[in-house]
């Protein structure tokens, strides 16, 4: 391999590594967002299923957790 080919190959490897790192960060962000949405969904379901709360209290609890 010539020096130029080695440099190009190395550059491509570095680019792939950087892209892989960015993809991993993106996936972690999506996973965190999904967990937050699931937790919020659980809060909504538990709030709406609570017979001891008035509709106004339910709305207030949900609004405070947005």
Structural overview:
It is built from two helices and no strands. By secondary structure, it is mainly alpha-helical. The protein has one domain. Helix 1 packs antiparallel against helix 2. The chain is rod-shaped and about 75 Å long.
List the helices and strands and how they pair.
Layout: H1 3-48, H2 55-64
Helix pairs in contact: 1-2
Write a brief structural summary.
It contains two helices and no strands.
Which features would summarize this protein structure in a list?
mainly alpha, 66 residues
Secondary-structure element pattern, one letter each: HH
Largest sheet: none
Fraction of residues in β-strands: under 5%
How many strands?
Answer: 0
Gross morphology:
rod-shaped
Distance between the termini: 58 Å
Q: Give the mean pLDDT.
A: 95
The domain count comes to 1
Radius of gyration, CA atoms, in whole angstroms: 24 Å
Q: How helix-rich are the residues, as a percent range?
A: over 70%
Structural class: mainly alpha
Number of alpha- plus pi-helical segments: 2
Give the low-confidence spans: none
């Amino acid at each position: 391999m010539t020096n130029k080919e080695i440099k190009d190959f190395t550059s491509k490897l570095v680019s792939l590594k950087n892209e892989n790192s960015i993809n991993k960060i993106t996936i972690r962000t999506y996973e965190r967002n999904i967990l937050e949405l699931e937790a919020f969904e659980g809060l909504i379901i538990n709030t709406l299923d609570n017979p001891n709360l008035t509709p106004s209290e339910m709305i207030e609890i949900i609004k405070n957790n947005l």
